[in-house]
Amino acid sequence: MPRPQHNALAPGPPNIPPLPPNAPTTRKAPPPAQPGGPALEPRRALGSPIGRRGSGREAWLTAATGPRRAEEMASGPSAVVPEDSVRSLSPGRRGEKVSPPARGSAEPGPLKGTRSTASPVRSVMASPRPVKGKAGREAARRRLQLPPASEAEGPGEGAGEEEEEPLLSVPEEEEEAQPLPPLSVSPMRGMWRGEKVALYCDEVLQGCKAEDADEAMSKYLSEKLKLKDKWLGVWKTNPELFFVKYEEASIPFVGILVEVTCKPRQSVSSCFKVTVSVAEPFSCNIANIPRDLVDEILEELEHSVPLLEVYPVEGQDSDIHDIALALEVVRFFYDFLWRDWDDEESCENYTALIEERINLWCDIQDGTIPGPIAQRFKKTLEKYKNKRVELIEYQSNIKEDPSAAEAVECWKKYYEIVMLCGLLKMWEDLRLRVHGPFFPRILRRRKGRRDFGKTITHIVAKVMTTDMVKDLSSDTLLQQHDDLDLALDSCYSGDTVVIFPGEYQAINLALLTDDIIIKGVGKREEIMITSEPSHDSFVVSKADNVKLMHLSLIQQGTVDGIVVVESGHLTIENCILKCEGTGVCVLTGAALTITDSEITGAQGAGVELYPGSIAILERNEIHHCNNLRTSDSSKSTLGGVNMKVLPAPKLKMTNNHIYNNNGYGVSILQPTEQFFIVAEEALNKGAASGDKKDDNMLSKVIQNLNLEMNNNKIEANLKGDIRIVTS
């Protein structure tokens, strides 16, 4: 879908100049590009054409929201800047609130169906754009309560006889602007994660490629605009359109109530603009803005403004409500879901990439990603956009024959952008987000054994009876807790935690550093331990030897794997693991044993082995894993068990049932097609067909991986049973 140009930066930045002889030349200079996000530019000219293919990817978003979008993009489609955020100023004392006008101007009645509350109107100090003629300039200056022209305009154009004129009061016959009516509330705010995914991936984009995303958004919005050709809305635009001097804190935007007329576009590449006229009564978020100034600006724009700068107001029919939703859908897409590099790189499944970004946004919004970590992402995104603006501005100032210093500086800025782009891509990958540089691991010192050398059995139950401990030896030291967290916090190496039926939560499960046994008594389905959604991790083991027995682990909201073995050895016996994250992850150098257990619902593989890890799986059921759409073909193959082979992990599988997974039953992930552990010549030798070659290769790889598989039942997996996958 074409996006509006942001011409205030440059008419068309040149290519990065060639490097001097001693500069690195391994990276190709990027093509000329315009910024692709709404918060990318500090300013943009209104009325400029929608971005054309080949002239750079442009954002739809408007100047009204542009100056403040950098912070809001990471936190989602913040609807509109609330009118009460406008800081009121008076000519006498800056920062003080202006009292309501004393004269009784009639308040506009609320539109049918709207709330009675209206957006407050503030008076501000600013230097307006000159209205035609001296009388017009002075009228504007009086309305905005400005000092004389010498102070407002400086020793330039405004000097002369005008600088002697005193500040005049507002004429009684001129009415101040009325408050703006409330805007239509977008239902996107209340949408669940799955609803957003269905809306964008299934209804709007419909499986299209990145280069076709513009057209898909255009088609979606065009269909909605056919519902109604005239409606009321608030035109929100950049204050720079009206004022040459103003304080950003006092005027974040200029909002004017307008009547909108939608006309069919002549072609897909034409601008998405609407015709507007000032609605009566004259309403604005700035009480003392001159009506003449607004009329003149609209005349200069030929009463045509970008569609996304207009926000429908409440109190209109359901068709307008649908139009408001469509506008918010498009704004959010170019605010948060679109990236400048999307149509420059090949992506097999673009809608899956959009789903990953929606999940990232939802994780930030609901606190799944902790605030400090989310703030780090926001700063990275903002820094990326600012660096891109710097590069474009720098390019636009380079003359036809750039110097060597200019070329080097251009490449320096380019590589900074490439680095930040890589960090943002890591955020979009669930597994990299969890185990990458964004989530520093929690460090906790081991307690070791108690000084007196004894071990304690911790009973977790609301009430303890003698029948509960009848099977324990008479010399067992007991300690009763009604809270699992307290029991874990009291443990030393060698202790045992016995849990009776009930539902529990324990953040200390993410801090297992001592060798303990945690086991349930009774049916494993009745001993439910759920994760705390506000925390990063569920079960994280760093101890030499930890055992989990006869439990049900139910993951809710945490982004980390349901169980992560960072170091040491973890044993899971007769447990149910209901995942929402990335399954069981065994990191480099760690070991895992799972027996008689069930793993289901993981967004990636049910069990994921990092390079150099060890795992033994016996008599387990692993099913319905890899439930997350992904744009990476290698990740879409993940299913039951995934192995990364450099360096080779060790895996022993016996009597497991791996079924109904969206990828392969077992996938072996290698870095490149050339790395097969066994020389390719040996694999080709004696191969009569491609199938035979693949079978031989798989057999050789399994042998060289120290992968032992006996009596496993692998069936009904979407992609197949077992496969070597190249990254």
From TrEMBL:
Its main location: cytoplasm. GO terms for cellular component: meiotic spindle. It comes from the Eukaryota. The keyword Nucleotide-binding does not apply. Gene3D superfamilies: Single-stranded right-handed beta-helix, Pectin lyase-like. Residues 11-35 have a biased composition (Pro residues). Residues 1-187 are annotated as: Disordered. Residues 450-610 form the Carbohydrate-binding/sugar hydrolysis domain. Residues 159-177 have a biased composition (Acidic residues). GO terms for biological process: cell differentiation; male meiosis cytokinesis; positive regulation of chromosome organization; spermatogenesis. It is found in: Cytoplasm, Cytoskeleton, Spindle. Testis-specific spindle-associated factor that plays a role in spermatogenesis. In association with HSPA2, participates in the maintenance of spindle integrity during meiosis in male germ cells. PANTHER family: SHC SH2-DOMAIN BINDING PROTEIN 1-RELATED, TESTICULAR SPINDLE-ASSOCIATED PROTEIN SHCBP1L. This is Testicular spindle-associated protein SHCBP1L.
